[in-house]
Each structure stands twice: as C-alpha cells, then as structure tokens.
Amino acid sequence: MTTRTLRRFNRKGLEAFEQCIRGMTAGRLENHLPLLENEDLTEPTANNCAFEVRDFRDREDAGKHLDAIVGQLGKTDFELRNDVGLWTWLAAVWLDVLIPDRTAMLRGDPIPRLVLYSNDFKTYYRHWLAGPWSIYSAHREQPDRARALLYTPVTSPGEIAEQFGANPTLIRRTSTVAAITKLYMHPETGRPKRGAAGKDKGGARRLVKVLKQFDLTYDREDMDADAIISLLPDEFDRFR
Amino acid sequence: MSRLNFTGRKKIPRKDVRAEINSAGGRLELTAKLNHTGDGGYEFPDDAQIIVEARIGQTFMRFGLGTVADQVGIQREHLFEFDHSAVGALKLDVRVVSPDGLLLGSATGIPPVLPDEDKRDRIPLLPFHASDELGQRLWRLDLSADPIVEINRGVGDWNAFARQEIFIALIYPELIRAIAQWELDQKREPDEDAPWTRFLHELGHDPADAPDEDDEIERERWLDAVTASFAVRHELLKKLELEEEG
C-alpha cells in the first residue's frame, strides 16, 4: 500500500500517458512512474489531498474509495466528472494494481479503460476508475441500490455494467437502478441471478431496451423499484 | 420509417415553457413555469404533477413545479450540480405526470433563456465550446446529449478557427451527417418542432422517411443525400474557391 498526494495530468500529461500506454500495448518497455509527479505534465490539486493506493475488492469498493479521495477537493460531481486530467492521473497511479501483469496490456484496448478525454457517455463508463465512481457517486447515500452495476472486479465490469453504463439516463435514476438490482441480484449473496447478464429474453440487454420504451410512457423517477418491476413484460418473470 | 405516438401523450410546444437562467457570481439559477395548463389549455387532470429536469450529459437536476391545478413554478433555484462554463449546453425536459407515473405530456431538449453575456458565443442549434481535453485532435462532435462541437483551445482563437471557410467546407458536412445519424438513432416520435428535425426538413429531408436501420445501404444513401443537400445549400465548393482566391 502506497500513500500519494493527489495531482492531475495537464494536456501534455494526458498525451504522454496515452503514448506510454500505447508503447506498453505494443510490447515496448515503458515506465509510467516518472510521469506521475512531473511538473511539466501534472499539476497539484488544491488542498494537497493525500490518499492510499490499494487493491479494490470490487467496483463498489473502488467507487467508495475514490469518492473519498476526490471528495476532498470540494468540487461538485459535475466538475469532478469532467476532470479528465484527474481521472487519467488516478488510473496512472493505479496502473500497477490494475494491470500487474504487463503482458495483459497486449490484449484488448486498454486506452479507454485508463485515459479519459471527455465526458462522453460512449466511452466514459469504460474507464476503470471514473466509470464505477460515476455510478457510486450518483447513489452514494445508498450504494446497495446500485449493487448490480458495481459488484464486479474493476477490470472486468461485466455485461450488466456495460449494458447500463452506456446509458447515463438510466444509471443515475435512483428508482430505476434500485429496480435493476432488485430484479437481477440475489439479496442474500449479492451476486447476480443466473441469466441476468445474458443476451436472452429478460437479460440486461433486453431490459435496457424495455426501459427506453418506458421513457415514452412513464416518468419512473417517483415510482419505487417494485412498481417499475411490475410494469415489465412476461419475459422478465424468471427474475421477479 | 414512420414513427407513431400510441401513448396518448401530448406534445408540449417549446413556446409554452418559460425558462430562464440567471447567473450571478458563477452561480446558476433556474426560473421555470409551464404555460396554458389551465382551462382552454392541455386539459391535463388537476392532480397531475409538472416536473422540469435540467440536464447536461449524464448530470440532471429535477424540480417539481406543482400540480396542474396549483402550479407554483420555481424561482431562481440554484443549479448547484452544474458548472457555469457549460451553461450553453444546458437543456430542459418538462413533463406532466399522473399520480401513478403515466406521462401525460412532455417537451424535451428545451434551451433556457440565457443571461446576455452567455449568448455571445451561442450558435443557434449547434453550440461550439472550447475544450482543453482534445489532445492532438482539433475538434470533436459530442453527441452524448444534444450535439455540441468542441474545438481544441490549443488552436488559439477557437471561435475564429471554427468560422473559417475551410473549416466549414471540410468539417460541417461530416458534422451534419453524424448529427443526422444521431437524430435517427434517437427514434423519437415525429416532432415537427424538434430543432434537428426542422433543420433536416429545411434541407428537404424528413427523418420519418429515412430507411430503417436494418437497411444499412439505403440508410447510408439517405445520409449521403442529406450531406449533399447541405453542401449544395451552402455552396461549399464555391466557398473553398473564394477562400483560395482571397
């Protein structure tokens, strides 16, 4: 466990870190650590916030820990969400924890998981740190409500988080998120019900489509989770 | 591709939503009210709730304006979730909702009236903003909410940069094509007053007539036709020639 003082990448720092990641994915020997406190690439945040770099149990644990860190800055969630230099710097700090085996960098495309360039929902939810924080912060008064979106490891968000994460109008709605968790998660184990993450009838992918259809007919915000679940068609019966 | 409204929901015209942003010391405040809800208006039930949501991207704030029978509106409510710098991107959704959650009427994507100083850089329909987050990219079309074009602040006078004929000739057709695609992807019910629908109509293209998404080739052709109409309307080749001569 390491203790660090919070900084953020400036524009040059964002580019330098992305180049570093590109080098790693190409199999080159790269070292990101010198970037983290480089005065030309980073800037200190107000308050000299100190924090611990540690493993995360799951995305909820990551969201909570990161919320405590960025909460020290005294900014609104809107400002924090848009602070791409901050989130990318945090991903750089956590890189060795998130990807201890550098050969894993050769598979897939880690750049959107580590580098944020804008508050674009199409890529934002993929970021390994900003993604879970964004969901956690929207439900911080009652994080259990968002368990279905946060139960997975940080580096393997899974189908449910991916499907709903790309739909910001859904993931920030309290009763809708409570309905997703109530429908798909076992309350005793905190694990998903069989088939919830699947692509078949009643699965997460279908629920996204059905909820979008509901948007034309219902205002769900003042409904409770049970009321939303009761509106779902028969294909969801196996999860009720 | 025709889209029909089977929900019975009433469309609320933008002109009936009174919404204004005040800005003092970086603090954004919203004043809002829905007109014509009473006798001779929409005939919504008295106990229906009127709700307004202010949103940018994935952030939103929700306010109750009261019931149809007793609308109190909101006066200078602090929009503490939002950053003043993004005020040009702020949009409002207004909904009239029955006590059991049924949507009775709605208006979406309404731009509030802004303080004078915030109108200067506002281009009707397609706002442009400077961005520090584009790296080596010069511009980016953000479609995470209503379309916004971000220009890299590193180009210097970003406003002048985006007004150059060469930028308009080269970039705008792709912007329009991407926005037309986005408009189709919204799968909205037909709304003649929706700004981008109106824009496409003025170019001679009705989104309701666009080929279905399953017919990719015909859909691409439709998008090509929109882009071509835009280029013809604005004589983009001539613009480029004039710039070269100048």
> Which protein chains make the most extensive interface, counting residues with beta carbons within 8 Å of the other chain's beta carbons?
A-B, 34 and 33 residues
Oligomer: heterodimer
Number of distinct helices of chain B:
5
N/C terminus separation of chain B: 45 Å
Pick out the low-confidence regions of chain A.
none
Helix-strand pattern of chain A: EEHEEHHHHHHHHHHHHH
Overall pLDDT of chain A, averaged?
90
Order of helices and strands of chain B: EEEEEEEEEEEHHHHH
Gross morphology of chain A: elongated
Strand content of chain A: 5-15%
Average predicted confidence as pLDDT of chain B? 82
Strand runs of chain B, count: 11
Assign a percent range to the helix content of chain A: 40-55%
The biggest sheet of chain B, with number of strands, parallel, antiparallel or mixed sense and barrel status, is: 5 strands, mixed
Report helical residue fraction of chain B.
25-40%
Summarize the structure.
The complex is a heterodimer of chains A (240) and B (246). Chain A is mainly alpha-helical and 240 residues long. Chain A has 14 helices and four strands.
Detailed description of the structure:
The complex is a heterodimer of chains A (240) and B (246). By secondary structure, chain A is mainly alpha-helical. Chain A has two domains: 1-138, no CATH class; 148-240, no CATH class. Chain A has 14 helices and four strands. In chain A, helix 1 crosses helix 4 (84-93), helix 2 crosses helix 8 (130-138) and helix 12 (174-184) crosses helix 14 (225-231). The longest helix of chain A has 15 residues, at 11-25. In chain B, strand 4 and strand 5 (59-67) form a beta hairpin. Chain B is 26% helix and 28% strand. Chain B folds into two domains: 10-118, Sandwich (Immunoglobulin-like), CATH 2.60.40; 128-245, no CATH class. Chain B is globular, with a radius of gyration of 20 Å. Chain B is α+β, with helices and mostly antiparallel strands and 246 residues long. Mean pLDDT of chain B is 82; it is low at 117-123. In chain B, strands 1-8-7-4-5 form a five-stranded mixed sheet, with no helix packed on it. Chain B has a three-stranded antiparallel sheet with strand order 2-3-6, with no helix packed on it. Chain B is built from five helices and eleven strands; from the N terminus they run E-E-E-E-E-E-E-E-E-E-E-H-H-H-H-H. Chain B has helices at residues 158-163, 165-185, 195-202, 216-233, 236-245, and strands at 10-11, 17-24, 27-34, 49-56, 59-67, 74-78, 91-97, 103-110, 128-131, 139-142, 148-152. In chain B, helix 2 (165-185) runs antiparallel to helix 4 and helix 2 (165-185) packs antiparallel against helix 5 (236-245). Classes of the chains: A mainly alpha (240), B alpha+beta (246).
